[in-house]
Fold this protein.
Amino acid sequence: MKNITIIGTGYVGLVTGAGMSEFGNKVICADIDSRKIGKLNSGLIPIYEPGLEEIIKKNFENSRLFFSSDIESSIKKAEVVVIAVGTPQGENGMADLRFVDSVVNTISRNLNSYKVICTKSTVPIGTGKDIIKIINNNIHDKKMFDYVSNPEFLREGSAVKDFLWPDRVIIGTDSDKAYKIMCDIYRPLYINKNPIAYTSVETAEMIKYASNSFLALKISYINEIANLCELLGADVHDVANAMGKDGRISDKFLHPGPGFGGSCFPKDLEALLAVSKNNELKMETVKAAIIANKNQKKRMTRKLLDLFNNNLNKCTISILGLAFKANTNDIRESASIDMINFIIEHGGIVNAYDPIANSEMYKIFDAIEYYDNVYDSIKDTDGIVIMTEWNEFRSLDFKRIKKYMRGNIILDTRNILNMDELSEFGFTYDNVGRIKK
Ligand code: UDX
């Protein structure tokens, strides 16, 4: 059992803290936001993640998980301090490390005993070396800490599952002592298989960026294949299925859509590109993934304009799905934002519905109508756009929709609607890369 302090209570910090307490460790999740900590101590979880509330409640009630806004004392009590603060995109694409720097300085001032300092936040390759320098400049005894890079691979909407059943755990450090301590924390994972890889700090940091940017590239690739399929009469679902049967390709992340969003892919691609530029190395594939993604979001808006014969003025359109993906309320970089902006800019009126992300989108668009169910949102509308692959949109009652809508246009940017049904009910529709029925 270890005493662990996680600094930062976003979805990475909270899920990591809950997961590590689930493994039997004593964990403090610390944050400077005392209001957020107050809510957590009263059982209010600020983010939606399947399974998170239960795992927090269980470990909180068993006194393995604590929440505190006293960062300094939380650091002093810890054997392992995990940095899990945000690293938003900064100038020219580089990650903004001001929160990391602030935490590192606080840690330097509170090294009252030997500690493992572990970075979970996604930081540019080489940051670990800088962190070690900063701490060494602020302390007398270099033996008071060892540094570890332990990047996260949590997907929003399945973060708890991804933490408790990871494909791999990367421990990047030059200290056997720190490596062994981290292995003790992740020991419960040995039950199924030993997913732990022991690397250098820089290698661990690179694994994170290389993994994320490859996944993003894969999405941009299938999106461009889908676009070509439309012009050549091929069906991207059949193409993706056949591609996926090749073990070297795998069928994961081959779902074409409106362009990827989220707090990671867009930011991580820009950060990797910035690091390569700073080292005077061209990374055309990373640049291509970024450009193709921007193009895909624009392509979706052009599709809608085509469906409305280039005139959206005074048309009322229901946007079904606001989150950047299903099972999360996160709208960061969501393709829905581009779509809503486009409709408004072209004189259209937007009705919006998402099972859980309405309030998040309201922070950006407070002058559109929000609804708490699909069917109210589509009443008297001229068109519908599916932007997020929520399960409830996979089984829409088209008979009811036909009756409620004023028009008959549907744009399915996630390819989740049944084209036979769309044709049967006489909708004029479009999607991404499919052979229309
Ligand atoms: C991603 C990485 O998957 C995760 O490992 C990393 O730790 C954080 O970033 P996340 O951004 O939460 O996770 O979601 P993910 O499921 O990867 O989807 C990202 C975006 O790609 C979403 O907008 C999603 O809709 C889109 N996507 C995903 C596709 O368009 N097609 C796909 O096949 C898969």
Summary: Residues 152-156, 212, 215, 219, 253-255, 257, 260-262, 264-265, 324-325 surround uridine-5'-diphosphate-xylopyranose (CB under 6 Å). DSSP finds 17 helices and 14 strands in the chain. The radius of gyration is 24 Å.
